[in-house]
Amino acid sequence: MVLDAAAVRRWCRLAADALGRTRGEIDALNVFPVPDGDTGTNLHLTVLAAADAADALPSGAGEADAWRAVAQAALLGARGNSGVILSQVLRGMADVLGSPAEQGGAALAEALEHASVLARAAVEHPVEGTILSVLGEAASAASEASATGVDGTARAAADGARRALRRTTGQLDVLARSGVVDAGAAGLCVVLDALAAVITDEYPEHYEVPARTAGTAPPPGERPEPQGPGYEVMYLLDAPDEAVHRLRERLDGLGDSLVVVGGDGLWNVHVHVDDAGAAIEAGLAAGRPHRIRVTYLHAASAGEPHAPHAGRAVVAVTAADGLAALFEAAGARVVRREPGAVPPLALLADAILAAGDEVVVLPNEPEVLALAEAAAERARDGGARIAVVPAKASVQGLAALAVHDPLRRFGDDVIAMTRAAGATRFGHLEVAAEEAVTSVGLCRPGDVLGLIEGDVATIGADIAEVARRVLDRMLSGGGELVTLIAGRNAPPGLAEGLEEHLRAGRPDVEVCLYDGAQRRYPLLIGVE
Length: 528
What we know:
The chain is of the alpha/beta class. Helix content is 49%, strand content 18%. The protein contains 18 helices and 16 strands. It has helices at 5-29, 39-55, 63-77, 80-97, 104-122, 131-144, 149-167, 173-178, 183-200, 241-254, 276-286, 321-329, 345-355, 366-380, 394-402, 410-422, 463-475, 494-505; strands at residues 231-238, 255-263, 266-273, 288-296, 312-318, 333-336, 358-362, 385-388, 425-431, 436-438, 441-443, 448-452, 455-460, 481-486, 510-515, 523-527. It has a 6-stranded mixed sheet with strand order 13-12-9-16-14-15, with helices on both faces. Strands 2-3-1-4 form a 4-stranded antiparallel sheet, with helices on both faces. The chain has a 4-stranded parallel sheet with strand order 6-5-7-8, sandwiched between helices. Helix 5 runs parallel beside helix 7. The radius of gyration is 25 Å and the shape is globular.
């Protein structure tokens, strides 16, 4: 196969890691279509969404499932102009390579050609010297080398993209004046290099991002003056295919940099406009827009592109006094909720708006996550930059907050916090209130349930013994730091006893003990 499910996973993860290492260099190249210095970050977040979806597939998933998952995840997670285009590239490749019958160099060349056609069709006014022209050159190079087998085809595509990247400086005036290559095209080259590495099993020590190709670097703070509309509007849209043509016409009349990708009733819409409300209203006329993001484009151009924005804040949701104190001590603003309930949408949205113009939200419970996304969408209408870190437990939220750095660029900070939350396995103890069938057997009222990542892992009568079993099982997959947060109804000395248990069996593990005062769970456990 050209790329079976396992290879798709490796490619997406390798591409995400490579973009993570090079995103700062790619951001520095970003002068078109607006010099907002976030193309590398947007591409990284887009591919990271695809990689996470690939990693979440069951072990028996086939290539059709893998390709469908990464294409859908990229569509849903696409950020910025280049990220939306890259999601269409993945969709085009999935159309061809998702079939077990497609294999070899010819299939890979066909997939890249199809991806190029779809990506160009998605952009209302294609411009040469961008990711589109470099993708087209990569597809042409792959086609010419298709008889050499899949290894030769993949390498030819990556090499062809690199050659085309160097030419972008002479194809677009703004690039020529700045002496840089196109940022989106540079990111595509990193993605195609990762593809060639996975197929050929030859991994480069580093991924090259040319600093500049001609001229001299502009002095600090003297990036190109912002041109064009002031707002980037993005949203997902549930709409019938026939409504999209009219939507394109309306949005094209409102602004520029229009890209619409998707199909089968789900679309990702990106446009630069002066009237953000009108762009959203156009979506409402076509269908149901959601995950609406509005970003002021000229803020980053007003000064140093990597300078931090004023008003950075973290908003954390919790129901317990002790947990609220922990989050506040770490610098977060806390939104309180009643135990077993979610906070009102308006309350959370108002708290996000009041926190600052760049806000990271930590839901800390699975049932709060969807509400946080909805509140963030409402808050974005006010022009703030909002990101929701998908923390499903308080220990994940605390891990994310521990790496929060307000002096970093917002996108970098969100990525670091999301990774910290994702790297934290979580568990908890709960006392059964009624008889029920669980994944490990029948439980009765009063039984102690030990849950890992939301699933019942063990049942017992003694709370300390159940806690030890849960902790040992969580550490069986590795870990260097254990966080234990005792609840209001925890037996005296529960957390301290577990610390002694770890000192005897796992002296290499660092242990942190806290009093969370949460009512429902006698103990929260985090393993990093």
